[in-house]
Amino acid sequence: MYKGRRVAVVVPAFDEERFIGGVLSTMPAFVDRVVVVDDGSRDSTAGIAASLGDPRVTVLRGERNRGLGASMRLGYRAALEDGAELIAKMDGDGQMAPEYLSRLLDALVDDAYDYAKGNRFLLVDSLRTMPTVRLVGNMGLTFLTKLASGYWHVFDPQNGYTAIRAECLRRLDLEAVYDGYFFENDMLIQLSLRDARVKDVPVPARYGDEESGLNPLDVGLRFPYLLTRRFFARIVLKYVLRDFSPIALFLLLGLALFGWGTGFGVYMCTSGSGAT
Known about the structure:
Elements: E1 7-13, H1 20-25, E2 33-38, H2 45-51, E3 57-61, H3 68-81, E4 86-89, H4 101-109, E5 115-119, H5 124-128, H6 132-149, E6 162-165, H7 166-171, H8 183-193, E7 198-202, H9 216-241, H10 246-274
Parallel strand pairs: 1-2, 1-4, 2-3, 5-7
Antiparallel strand pairs: 4-6, 5-6
């Protein structure tokens, strides 16, 4: 229990036999339930998690790798069924310091936020340890995620150290959340559709010899495409279907004028270069 609330932590894991034991053995004492979701690992991740003998740990194992989002749906539902009131996410690779979990929960309990997430950019020392490729990519995806979600105060959307209130989680359409690594970004968009209150919490990054499952080329192409689709879906759902707003009218009119202006400019340049 944490300040009178029942706490569950969902730990998605794929081939994390080197790190899963350390993650579970350092789980704070106030955590009531730990749901490890083994996403079709090819190693001993599930066996190690089950062998620790911690009565708080439940291991759910998928027969095949389905992705981070699919694992979190399974873990979230198990935590809700167990009666958790606050549900956090900690990855199985040991990058998320357990001593900072209470800060995320404080944002939900003391400050009455619906969702709290870590932000490595609020700590200068933490940024020095972040690989340059991750730093640059994160800044680009941060801008696109701000645009798609409407949460302009939120930074570091790729940070997977999160906590959510159970009542907020029940309002979300989890089936609509993306199955793969786009999960963290998509959660922010789903939260925006429900007008949930989101807070960034300073949490340092921890990098060891773990290998990232993200392909930079894949992320660079797929994430912008998905964020663009989610942006227009949010505009239509929130500002046209649910409650029509001038925002949608101005956006659509602006895009139409931009398209016309671009096309006209290309035409003038082309016709002008041919008339000599």
